[in-house]
């Protein structure tokens, strides 16, 4: 595997389900990110982890719960979602905070549909 | 005021022409600027980064930055139908690598 991978690629869930999205980066980076991309809206940053510490929580509802067990893996745990949470969820990674030239590389995304 | 602004398009150009995509940003302290290309149904792909005023060229792509005017642009020379995509401008802002994205400009290159 190379770059940033995400599983599953597609997910359909009911509002009462609990599911998790997984992201893995193979780039040796220290920072990982979750973004949400809804139709007709700009990419929205959800969470930032730097060296496994959460450093940004962009006013995301508690029904989204991130977890970063190490610098290569990132999870997004989902529970009691709403239909408006249907979107493309993107994971990204970069060298780490404090670096001016901090290019972020994205995974392929998980297309989530909440029924 | 939006933090990163782009014309949503679509910008339609004939094959072989130069496509010019523009972006303005509000944070004067920003130092890092990126262009991503996103095909329909796919994730964003980094195509250019620029950190200093002036031009940066990479193949058919040229990024231009003017920090005084808070303006960054992307030129695509010899446009091809395969360049048809949405181009996202992104600006690094804040101390925790917060990347602020514009809404994107849709480019359509027609044969």
Can you give keywords for this protein?
heterodimer; A: 115 residues; mainly beta; seven-stranded mixed beta sheet; four-stranded antiparallel beta sheet; 11 strands; 0% helix; globular; B: 111 residues; six-stranded mixed beta sheet; five-stranded antiparallel beta sheet
Can you characterise this structure?
With 115 residues, chain A is mainly β. In chain A, 0% of the residues lie in helices and 56% in strands. Chain A has strands at residues 4-7, 10-13, 18-25, 31-37, 44-50, 53-57, 64-70, 73-79, 87-94, 105-106, 110-114. Chain A starts with a strand and ends with a strand. In chain A, 35% of the residues are buried. With 111 residues, chain B is an all-beta fold. In chain B, 0% of the residues lie in helices and 57% in strands. Chain B has strands spanning 4-6, 11-14, 19-25, 32-38, 45-50, 54-58, 61-66, 71-76, 85-93, 98-101, 105-110. In chain B, strands 2, 4, 5, 9, 10 and 11 form a 6-stranded mixed beta sheet that branches. A 5-stranded antiparallel beta sheet of chain B has the order 1-3-8-7-6, with no helix packed on it. Chain B is globular and about 45 Å long. The N and C termini of chain B lie far apart (37 Å). Classes of the chains: A mainly beta (115), B mainly beta (111). Chain A binds chain B through residues 31, 33, 41-43, 45, 48, 50, 55-56, 88, 90, 94, 96-109, and chain B through 4, 31-32, 34, 36, 42-46, 49, 51, 88, 92, 95-104.
